[in-house]
Amino acid sequence: MQLDIYTLIFIAITVVVVLQLRSVLGKRTGNERPPFDPYSSKEESKVEKTDTADNVVTMPRRPGAPEPVINHQLDEGDTVTAVIDKLAQSGTALNAGLKAIAEVDHYFNPDEFVKGANGAYELIVTAFAAGDRKTLRNLLSSDVFDGFDAAIDEREKRKETIDFSFVGINRSVISAAELVGSAARVRVDFRSEIISATMDEEGRVIEGDPNAVDEVTDIWTFERDTNTGDPNWKLIATETPE
Question: How far apart are CA 127 and CA 203, in angstroms?
């Protein structure tokens, strides 16, 4: 399948950020939660939602891990309309929202969007772990960035570090979509696995387990103004289900 503009953009971002974070992958500073906490395990939540709201993005998988589960099967040559009808039942709010976005954004393809969102999720969580504000600023809305930035500040003040490893994505699905004026909003639900342990200044574990894999469910919402020439999506809301 031919790559669309979103996939190319996410690939470009991935190359730049991976080079920037090569020396800090697997390490991160702090333990304070921003509006979402990518390192706290939560009970598994229902992800087959059709309401319009926040999006969830999950991390990329480890080598050898099973492919993330998506809620549709594509055939080569499918039109965007066909892709949407396979992803969401006709007549649902999700189906209508995706088609409304596709009508004003002719590059939009929900399958390619999920692939890009998966990559963005890993980049954002890894950057948050590393305290990489520069990367976060480019991928987050100002409100979400402020929350992440405050959490990083608190972690740095406490001189805490986090030993972190990403294991993989078990599931990622679009659960809601809507067009509000010119703003396209897509929510993605992610279920991922991580290893995380918080260390104090002396290197003692004060939270988590450096040898235990935790399952994490996150819900993230991405937004793009379709009236602008900027094709990039930014994270505008995060949620950790109860």
Answer: 21
Q: Which of 70, 105, 110 is nearest to 94 (CA)?
A: 110
Query: pLDDT tens-digit profile of 214-231?
Result: 999 999 999 999 998 888
* Tokens linked to 127: 């950057």
Q: Mean pLDDT score of the chain, rounded to an integer? A: 75
Cα separation, 153 vs 141, in Å, equals 18
- For the cut 70, the answer to whether the pLDDT of residue 67 exceeds it is no
As beta bridge partners, residue 240 has none
Q: Which two tokens stand for residue 221?
A: 């919402």
**Percent of the chain surpassing pLDDT 90:** 48
Neighbours of 118 (CB within 10 A): 23
CB neighbourhood size of 224 (10 A): 21
Number of other CB atoms surrounding residue 200 within 10 Å:
14
Question: What average pLDDT does this structure show over 93-107?
Answer: 95
3-state secondary structure of 164: strand
Residue partners of 194: CB distance under 8 A and separation at least 6: 38, 39, 59, 164, 165, 166, 167, 213, 214, 216
Do the Cβ atoms of 102 and 84 come closer than 8 Å?
A: yes
Type of residue numbered 179: L
Taking the C-alpha atoms of residue 148 and residue 218, their distance in angstroms, rounded to an integer, is: 15
Q: Who's near 208: CB < 8 A, 6+ residues apart?
A: 39, 162, 196, 197, 198, 214
